Amino acid sequence: MTCRLCLHNTDNLLSIFTDNGDIAKKVVVDTLEQHLKLKIQFNDKVSNKICLDCWQHIQNFHTFWLRIDEKQRSLETILDCPQIKQEKNVEYNSYEHVNSVNKDNLLIEPELNINDIKNEHGEGMRVDSPLLFNVPAEVEDVPSTCTFCGRSTSEYLKLKEILQTQNKTVLETLQHQSVLIHSLVRQEEVSSSALEEFPIDNREQLEEIDAKINEDNRDTYVRVMKSIIRNQINKNIKSVLTEKLIMDFNLDGTHGKGRLKDYKNFYGSFREAVETFDPERSIRHALQLAKKRYFQSTCTSNKKMKFAE
């Protein structure tokens, strides 16, 4: 069976639905929708199951996300202290007064004038330089305890510094994880788009898909064809190539048929998707078997028609 997320064929799958179509693993459905914005349906045309490896990755990220959420709530609790809020507002107002930051240029550092840094005799920064913050008295002399909640102000500030350091690391890791998840979602969207191109019905479609396959998307087409073939090339080849196209082509172009090997991008991906010891031999046999079944079916139909007459 195929995993709905990574599109790999594996026996280690997690069943999300019962045989009747009811949701058996609601936590899986909710978690996938929360983080991947993906809602798997019972009648999904690719698969309604996910592999255990993918679920482990999602669980790890969800645990990570919960830890971040807890840290952020702790930080909000600390910053909710009125004394800390007051100090924060004073610092911001002082900085705004000195540098006159324009709202349209919040990310631009203030310009420095060398005359503000040196005095006329080059003796260093003047005491009255506008680059020095004019720190109000209430900030210079911070009380040891919060006047509102009675807790130690230094304890709050120390914990705030620790949380800020931790959050910086957490957010950097979260950013990396977010990139991976978006890449996974993008990969799933591209795979779904490629899946709609199969089965290939005629020469024009074969030429079109051969022109589309390149080094950037080759792996995607290989994964899609693997999910279609499911290690059963003889049974599922007509899901890659329609019966009509199979009758018009063979591998080498013999007997007046089209040559499948001429479509190098498609055929190379097709070979890679056939996970057998000798992929070319397996494809050749599958094509011959499909043609044999077609002739047998046609022969049987003709006999039935004659019998009916």
What does this structure look like?
The chain contains 12 helices and 4 strands. It has 309 residues and is mainly alpha-helical. It has 2 domains: 1-77 and 140-195, His-Me finger endonuclease fold (3-Layer(aba) Sandwich); 197-298, no CATH class. The chain is elongated.
**How far apart, in Å, are the first and last alpha carbons?**
45 Å
The proportion of strand residues reads: under 5%
Helix-strand sequence: EHEHHHHHHHHHEEHH
Structural classification = mainly alpha
> What's the CATH first level of the largest domain?
Alpha Beta
Number of domains: 2
Shape estimate: elongated
Largest sheet: 2 strands, antiparallel
- Global Rg: 33 Å
Measured as a percent range, the helix fraction is 55-70%
Unreliable stretches covering 5 or more consecutive residues: 94-142
Q: Which architecture of the largest domain would the CATH scheme give at its second level?
A: 3-Layer(aba) Sandwich
Give the SSE layout.
Blueprint: E1 13-15, H1 26-36, E2 49-51, H2 52-79, H3 82-99, H4 114-117, H5 137-140, H6 153-195, H7 203-212, H8 218-229, H9 233-236, H10 243-248, E3 249-250, E4 258-259, H11 264-273, H12 279-308
Parallel strand pairs: 3-4
Antiparallel strand pairs: 1-2
Helix pairs in contact: 1-2, 2-6, 6-8, 7-11, 8-11
